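Aggregate trends can hide what the representation actually does to any particular protein. For completeness, the protein is quoted in full, as a sequence line and a line of structure tokens.
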Amino acid sequence: MKAIVFEKIQQLRIHEKPIPTLTTGDVLIEIELCGICASDLAALRGDVSDYAPPVVMGHELAGIVVETRHPDVKIGERVTVNPMLSCGVCSECQNDLDKYCTTIEGIGHDIDGGYAEYMRMPKHGVDTGKLIRVPDSIPPEELLFLEPLGCCLNAMRETLFKDSVAILGAGPIGLMLTQLTKRAGLATYVFEPQAHRRAVAETLGADVTFDTSPEAIAHLQEITRGGVDTVISATTNHASAIALAFDIVRRGGCVNFFGLAPDGETLHINLEEFHYAGHKLMASWAFSRASLEASRQLLIEDALNFEPLLTDRFPLAQGLAAFDNAAAQRGVKTVVHP
């Protein structure tokens, strides 16, 4: 089978690999679609370090079970995965904080994932509930968003909201958050430098969209009378994004640095100014089992519009071009397929 292998920083190649063989309790998934995540792009650049190459990347997947050695899994079931394979018994796992488990292995990070024709789900992952079954009525074009939507729902649960929110970035995460904040009744403003992505945010309900110019910042401050109650940064948290967040949040407001940050990026705070500004600073990342189940339910209810998000498809054989496309932010979401 063909697979996209992350060999080392700045090195991605298409490999011909054997179809995974199963042992007792394992499941074989035929991949239908797999989305390219910003974390995969960051790993390839060398910005993040939680990957163990060489590995087949890919964790935002939709597939069908085509072989099963597990008594609880049937051939033909439509599935995606919770890509964090944790021990299931430590205090973190028992409290639905699997991401803090000290023995965690990530699908597409540490073990082979979904940028391939087939993927093996190990018995331990099935036994600990990390294989997510969904009705056949959910198409793969929506199912691949279940995991990132779970991340957004986790952030929504953790973030402090009042009446207004600004979302930095109109990529897939920012556009899902736009729909979630509108569903929550919040005035929603989206900052995005690319016009085609701002247009998508507008179709999905954003009250006003902005580029990142000084004029746009001034306009937001004017119409909100001093800034928004909450900022969620759904983009790479480099220095300019950090500065923008503080420019548009009101005193006493909340900033959630949801997006990844390049390794070594720092946040410098004058503690006296911070004290009197009263800002609430936080970071959300990944998901919980509960947020993935809530995401699954939203997909079943057809509650969000994913159609404008999936814009670019590439076969596995053109996987390098797919990564270039995603890195250049052409369209919104880039996916690969067999």
Residues 7 and 53 are 5 Å apart (CA to CA). The mean pLDDT is 97.
